[in-house]
Amino acid sequence: MGKILDTIDTINEWVGKIFRWSLVLLVAVMVFEVLSRYVFHRPTTWAFEVSTGLYACSFMMCSAYALLYKSHVTIDILYEKFGPKGRSIFDIVSALIFFYPFLIVVLLQGQKYAAHAWAIKETSWSTFPMPLYLVKTMIPLFAFFTLLQGTATFIRSICFLTTGKDYISKYKKEEIQKVVMDYDEPVGEVADGKGEKK
Questions:
Q1: What is the pLDDT of residues 44-90, one digit of tens each?
Q2: How many secondary structure helices (H) and strands (E) does the chain include?
């Protein structure tokens, strides 16, 4: 089971690492447009469309990566008051009520949406006809990868609740290990407020 979950994590780790570069491209496009418009007085016709597509690419294709590291915005007022098993129950119930219904609908409808865009080779209506069928293809891909990662989280919660075994992601282990290695103060001293960085 652990190997299957780690495989899912690895897939979304690499999808996130690849598509996070779209943010760098987005910044580059916006800087180029600002310079072209306000310094050289020659605004482009394509910067707005391309930047919109890159933004869509970044938040959709990196969604599962963010879920892997629990980086999505959450309201922890109640969640933090629960114990480990209480949090697992909360994760399972919220996944069944909110997560799965929403993303399954997005996946099914997104497939139709993308297929129609490809069938007509849909482009934007601006002076720069950006191929929207490429952007719309990311909708079902976003739903698929996020569902995949969400299912890994769901399985981990069930396993912890039923067996007490925590199949923590190997990427979370690496992240924790890095923090521990970077912070060389003894845990007891830090807790007592007596630790000094050497």
A1: 999 999 999 999 999 999 999 999 998 887 777 777 888 888 989 99
A2: 9, 0
Task: State the average pLDDT over residues 126-151.
Answer: 94
pTM above 0.70, yes or no: yes
Q: Are 105 and 22 in contact (CB under 8 A)?
A: no
Q: Which residue has the tokens 């480990």?
A: 84
State the chain's mean pLDDT as an integer.
87
Q: What are phi and psi of 123, to 5 degrees?
A: -130, 165
Element (H, E) at 51: helix 47-61
CA-based nearest residue to 67, from 3, 135, 154? 154
Helix (H), strand (E) at residue 3: helix 2-19
Name the nearest CA neighbour of 166 among 12, 9, 1. 1
Closest alpha carbon to 10 in 164, 135, 171: 171
Shortest CA distance to 60 belongs to which of 116, 172, 140? 140
Q: What is the pLDDT of residue 53?
A: 93
Dist. CA 61–CA 64, nearest whole Å: 7
